[in-house]
């Protein structure tokens, strides 16, 4: 029950974050979520910032290039993104998603499959970067890094497709789609 | 050449290897045996300077290998040229557009003059000359492994680390690889849990127990014959009949 109430609160705040456009509101949400996160604040904030850094930089630069400097808008935009990300990470850390989605067999399976894929891909990513490190006698050139990123992207796409097909067949084999 | 003293490593709180001590001399062919999750790959990654002992020390040719030490570009260059590792999944090692570029990768990094000649030499040695213009992503698992091996050996390393090299290969390819490795005159450390093939991969065996400790260091043939030790490491099923 506690998980469901938390989920409802999370969804409500997420909707409000997309509907309300006030810096004060975003700051208030950030302040409250920071208090709720307690000792986890710095860890979650670090993860939030690293998760949005690339996206926010691209959006901010594009905005600056097209519309020029508008502090208020940029503050609004960045606060909203960080609020949403921080809130989501906090939600995931506080709630047992498996228990939360327990009411639906399909959603639970979807979560299990996604979670297992995330863990697997995290492992693959670690191996890819280690292999590059192991083979790099000196700092890779820009061209070599681009080659690496391109092949890593291709690797993940291929693995996603292969794994999805395999999982789908395994689920079919176990009668998942019959019920 | 390689010297580990009381090395321990943990992934967060999970123990991967504990209190491991052994050394490897130049020219030795050592096989590390252990069940999945016993810490074999972690051990190889430490020897390759990819992760660092949280306890104990690792020395390569007398020099302690630390994160700080490998940040020195000159030392890193020397170390990476001498110590190479073949990962269990060759897909993780491949990122160049063609097989030629893949083999040439490290040679170009070393700014070696006769790249083309060396690429052709190693491609021929590994029987992949006909694949040089192909994309490595289109190859079979065994072919990819040969490409990776050619790339690693092209810079003439002194220490080759092989992480479960035969695990994804069909018997024919596995035996080809074993024959090929026997012909190499360098120090090799291989991890495997394949008891039958292990004796072909080296003469000295290290055995890791399920609780991530080194419980045997000695003759590989004697280890394979030591049913008690293999049982202790959970490498064989109690009803397994060894030696025919």
Describe this structure as you would to a colleague.
The complex is a heterodimer of chains A (179) and B (244). Chain A is mainly α. Chain A is built from 7 helices and no strands. In chain A, helix 1 packs antiparallel against helix 4. The longest helix of chain A has 32 residues. Chain A is globular. The mean pLDDT of chain A is 85. Chain B is an alpha/beta fold. In chain B, the strands form 2 sheets. In chain B, strands 6-7-8-3-9-10 form a 6-stranded mixed sheet, sandwiched between helices. Chain B has a 4-stranded antiparallel sheet with strand order 2-1-4-5, with helices on one face. The longest helix of chain B is centred in the middle third of the chain and has 13 residues. The model of chain B has no long low-confidence stretch (mean pLDDT 89). The interface between A and B is medium-sized, with 23 and 27 residues.
What is the straight-line distance between the termini of chain B?
Answer: 37 Å
Tally of separate domains of chain A: 2
CATH architecture tag of chain B: 3-Layer(aba) Sandwich
- Pair with the biggest interface: A-B, 23 and 27 residues
Largest sheet of chain A: none
What pattern of helices and strands is seen along the backbone of chain A? HHHHHHH
Number of helices of chain A: 7
Structural classification of chain A: mainly alpha
From the alpha carbons, calculate the radius of gyration of chain B and give it in angstroms. Answer: 18 Å
Kindly name the structural category of chain B.
alpha/beta
Which stretches of chain B of 5+ consecutive residues score pLDDT under 50?
A: none
Strand content of chain A: under 5%
């Amino acid at each position: 029950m506690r998980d469901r109430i938390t989920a409802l609160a999370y969804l409500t705040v997420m909707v409000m974050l997309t509907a309300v456009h006030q810096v004060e509101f975003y700051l208030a949400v950030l302040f409250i979520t920071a208090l709720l996160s307690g000792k986890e604040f710095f860890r979650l904030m670090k993860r939030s910032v690293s998760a949005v850094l690339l996206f926010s930089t691209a959006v901010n630069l594009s905005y600056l290039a097209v519309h020029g400097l508008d502090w208020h808008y940029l503050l609004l935009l960045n606060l909203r993104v960080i609020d949403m990300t921080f809130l989501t990470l906090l939600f995931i850390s506080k709630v047992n998603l498996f228990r939360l989605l327990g009411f639906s067999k399909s959603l639970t399976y979807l979560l299990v499959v996604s979670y297992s894929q995330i863990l697997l891909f995290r492992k693959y990513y670690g191996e890819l970067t280690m292999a590059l490190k192991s083979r790099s006698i000196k700092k890779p050139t820009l061209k070599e890094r681009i080659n690496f990123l391109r092949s890593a992207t291709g690797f993940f796409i291929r693995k996603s497709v292969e794994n999805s097909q395999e999982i789908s067949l395994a689920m079919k084999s176990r009668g998942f789609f019959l019920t | 050449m390689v010297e580990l003293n009381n090395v321990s490593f943990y992934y967060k709180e999970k123990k991967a290897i504990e209190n491991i001590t052994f050394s490897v001399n130049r020219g030795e062919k050592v096989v590390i045996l252990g069940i999945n999750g016993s810490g074999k790959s972690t051990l190889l990654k430490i020897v390759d300077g990819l992760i660092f002992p949280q306890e104990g020390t690792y020395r390569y040719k007398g020099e302690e290998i630390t994160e700080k030490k490998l940040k020195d570009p000159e030392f890193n260059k020397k170390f990476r040229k001498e110590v190479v590792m073949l990962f269990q999944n060759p897909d993780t090692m491949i990122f160049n557009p063609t097989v030629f570029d893949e083999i040439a990768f490290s040679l170009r990094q070393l700014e070696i003059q006769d790249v083309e000649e060396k690429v052709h030499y190693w491609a021929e040695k590994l029987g992949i000359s006909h694949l040089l213009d192909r994309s490595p992503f289109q190859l079979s698992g065994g072919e990819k492994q040969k490409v990776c091996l050619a790339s690693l050996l092209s810079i003439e390393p002194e220490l080759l680390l092989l992480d479960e090299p035969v695990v994804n290969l069909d018997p024919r390819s596995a035996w080809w690889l074993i024959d090929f490795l026997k012909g190499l005159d360098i120090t090799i450390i291989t991890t495997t849990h394949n008891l039958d093939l292990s004796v072909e991969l080296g003469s000295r065996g290290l055995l890791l127990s399920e609780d991530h400790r080194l419980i045997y260091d000695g003759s590989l043939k004697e280890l394979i014959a030591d049913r008690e030790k293999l049982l202790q490491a959970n490498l064989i099923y109690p009803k397994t009949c060894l030696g025919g």
